[in-house]
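Sanity check. The docking grid for protoporphyrin IX containing FE depends on where the pocket ends up, so I'm generating a full predicted complex first rather than guessing from homology. Inputs follow.
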Amino acid sequence: MSESELQAYTLKELSNYDGNHGTSPALLLGLNGKVYDVSSGANFYGPGKAYNVLAGRDSTRALAKASLKAEDIPGPDDDPVDAMGLSESELETLKGWEQRLAAKYAVCGRLVSQ
Ligand code: HEM
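Predicted complex below; grid placement will be based on this.
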């Protein structure tokens, strides 16, 4: 499947997939322009779990900076994170997360601006 055939999600649409809205798939995670179906990682991302703040969100800046602070997690009305704004070392960290998540979860979409 080519990139442009992937379903497009704004951060507002993505925000429904945080495990609290009865969606199918249950849990999606945005990372560097892509959307991963992380439903099988409900023990990490599900409601009440350690990384639920990342579910239904663009996790790019949070994972690149190893930060779970609200300021590093864009909200439903924001645009996706542009990785160009990250430092060299943050980009390295981001690459590691992309490899880890791509090995574990299917890409089911792409992030687009509102
Ligand atoms: C004291 C700090 C931390 C500890 C001890 C810790 C520990 C862990 C452990 C044990 C796992 C499970 C690994 C596995 O079974 O595969 C995990 C997963 C994860 N951690 Fe952390 N973590 C910490 C901080 C963070 C931070 C700051 C972030 C992000 C900003 C983060 C993001 C994640 C994510 C996204 C997963 C799930 C990855 C997946 O879907 O496989 N962690 N963490």
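Relevant for the grid: The pocket of protoporphyrin IX containing FE is lined by residues 38, 41, 44, 51, 54, 62-63, 66-68, 104 (CB under 6 Å).
Also worth noting: Helices lie at 11-14, 42-45, 60-65, 88-104.
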